[in-house]
Amino acid sequence: MSASPPHEPGSADVSPYRITAGQGPQTLGELRAELAGIDPVELAAFDARLGAARFGREHEAVITEARHLVALRTRPEVRQAIRASLAGETELMTVEDLFAELDKGTAP
Predict the structure, then answer these.
(1) pLDDT tens, position by position, 7-43
(2) pTM of the predicted model as reported, rounded to 2 decimal places
(3) Where are the beta strands (DSSP E) in the chain?
(4) Are 70 and 34 in contact (CB under 8 A)?
(5) Is residue 26 a contact partner of residue 34, using CB atoms and an 8 Å limit?
(6) Is 9 exposed, middle or buried (0-12, 13-18, 19+ CB in 10 A)?
(7) Rounded CA gap, 26 and 107, in Å?
């Protein structure tokens, strides 16, 4: 079996600190299904926020927040990365390293 594609958890190219466009649900239907599987209340809250959002950036923000929730609730490596960061168990990047990563487009 080959390695996971870059958009799948377990791939060497996946950072638990950053969710890329290709990771997780790719349509509103998929996102709603994931949220319903997590908790029907989460789905109802998402639909309410999405319905109240203005077209454009507000819609994007509601969708992004929901995608982050799905990642947090379904990807153990994301939860572990957050736990490690909160516990001070991860090394902080220098500003120079951060800008170098941003230049490469792979910053956490």
Answers:
(1) 454 555 677 777 888 888 999 999 999 999 999 999 9
(2) 0.67
(3) none
(4) yes
(5) no
(6) middle
(7) 22
**Helix (H), strand (E) at residue 81:** helix 76-86
User: Are 23 and 71 spatial neighbours (Cβ–Cβ below 8 Å)?
Assistant: yes
Band the pLDDT of 83: cuts 50, 70, 90: confident
- Token readout for 76 is 């153990």
Residue type, 105: G
C-alpha dihedral over 21, 24, 27, 32, to 10 degrees? -140
In sequence order, the 6+-apart residues with CB closer than 8 A to the CB of 27 are: none
Q: Residue 46 to residues 24, 39, 107: CA-CA distances in angstroms? A: 16, 11, 28
Look up residue 102 and give its two tokens: 């941003």
